[in-house]
Amino acid sequence: MGRKSFLIIALALTLFSGIVIFTITGFSSLSQSYDREVNRAQSDIWVMAQLALEVERTLHTLHMYVQGNTLVTYQDVNLRYDILWSRLPPIATAPDMDHLRGFEDIQDTIANLQDALTTIDPLIATLQPGDFASMDTIHNTLSPFSAHLNKLAALIVSNTDQIEKTYWENVEGRTSTLEYSVITILAIGFLMVSLLVIESMQARKLLAHAQEAEQRAGEASQAKSAFLANMSHELRTPLTGIIGFSGMMEQETMGPLPIKYKEYASDIERSGKHLLDLINDILDLSKAEANKMELDADIYDVGEIIHQSERLVAGLLETYKIHIETELSDNLPEFRIDRRRIVQCIVNLLSNAIKFSPADSTVRLTAATTSSGGLSITIYDNGQGMNADELKLAMLPFGQVRHGPDVQHEPGTGLGLPLVSLMMELHGGNLEMTSKPGKGTSARLYFPPDIIIKRYTKDGGDGSGQAFIFTGR
């Protein structure tokens, strides 16, 4: 399953879950609120109905006692009367009765009932069987409260009906809100899914274009490699003849030449060599970029490689009147490299340092091991240096930095530094360039620990020894 498909499914599940949770939470909250209100209303109805019933029971007990019913004693009258009194304080003061006291006329009715009971307390205390006068007073005092309490209970019942009506209105409102919310969520989800689908289609289209472009680039690279291979063969053959014959003419092998012609022969030879160097550099750069350059690696001594490189630039040193100061650390290790490529790297860097240094100055070349177990070869010059933009230009193929007509040096191909960088990458290392205007340039070749060779000898028990070689730290 692709990433886009996974995102679409995850989004759909998220939207569905959101709708379900929203629905369940909303209606659950509404149902709980309704249940709470209904239960509270039922409790209020029960309280008022019980109070009205208690008034009726008290009056019935009093009538039976006054009429001389032997089943009812004075203790029964006092117990029933005390029960009626006990019903009033909770309604008047209990915190859970706040809702009941909120109904119109409840508090006044309870207060009036308390006053009435207080008024008839003396009559209850002296009531005897046959005392019909006191019984009439008590009856006339309590009887209106029974009817009024029943009326209040009926009012609470009607309020419960109003709660149910309000509940269903809220349900309808919540349902409408839910419908709009679901429609909105689905619209947003559809929009997001559409955007993901469009993005997926665009990504596939871009991927197809990228694959097509990669294929074309591969074909172009193959065509370039074939072209360069053919051109190198076609150009090197005549260039070899041009360089050879111009050298013979300059040396006057077949007899003396006029001075002007001899100068022409020297120019022809120099131009031919420059053109041959350019062709070789282009071929090397093309091979390195295409990862088709194969290294002929073997174990070499660092000092030997550096001295060979110095000998190859001896002519430039004389031409530009530059001195080389070499500093090699003690006990430099051997390394596994392609000798010709690394010598080419060092010679390129030395040539640049010599050409861009003022006359009678010194180019420093140092070699030392690094703290990580690798090796660095660094070349310093005292030339005019480069700023950051010029340094970037110098690292590009065919990029050449010009400082003005006062700087005299042979024109290069602009491929030296890019070639050095690519060849160092093939060896697992890198080229580090630092430069500041007016303070010269330093070029550092870094070789990683895994191509460094170390030797040691393990002594045998009989005095003999065996040599071992290992790479790395």
What would you say this structure looks like, in words?
The protein has 3 domains: 3-197, Up-down Bundle (f41 fragment of flagellin, N-terminal domain), CATH 1.20.1330; 225-286; 295-401 and 411-454, Histidine kinase-like ATPase, C-terminal domain (Heat Shock Protein 90, 2-Layer Sandwich). The chain has helices spanning 3-66, 74-93, 98-101, 106-126, 132-251, 259-289, 302-312, 314-320, 339-355, 388-394, 416-426, and strands spanning 297-301, 323-328, 334-338, 362-369, 375-381, 430-435, 441-447, 452-459, 465-471. It is built from 11 helices and 9 strands. Helix 1 (3-66) packs antiparallel against helix 5, helix 2 packs antiparallel against helix 4 and helix 4 runs antiparallel to helix 5 (132-251). With 473 residues, the chain is of the alpha+beta class. The strands form 2 sheets. Strands 2-4-5-7-6 form a 5-stranded mixed sheet, covered by helices on one side.
Question: What is the secondary structure topology, with strand pairs?
Answer:
Layout: H1 3-66, H2 74-93, H3 98-101, H4 106-126, H5 132-251, H6 259-289, E1 297-301, H7 302-312, H8 314-320, E2 323-328, E3 334-338, H9 339-355, E4 362-369, E5 375-381, H10 388-394, H11 416-426, E6 430-435, E7 441-447, E8 452-459, E9 465-471
Parallel strand pairs: 2-4
Antiparallel strand pairs: 1-3, 3-8, 4-5, 5-7, 6-7, 8-9
Sum this structure up briefly.
By secondary structure, this protein is α+β, with helices and mostly antiparallel strands.
Q: For the largest beta sheet, what order do the strands appear in spatially?
A: 2-4-5-7-6
**Rounded average pLDDT:** 78
Rg (C-alpha, Å): 55 Å
Number of strands: 9
Number of helices: 11
Percent in strands: 5-15%
CATH class of the largest domain: Mainly Alpha
Structural class, from helix and strand content? alpha+beta
Low-confidence stretches: none
How many discrete domains? 3
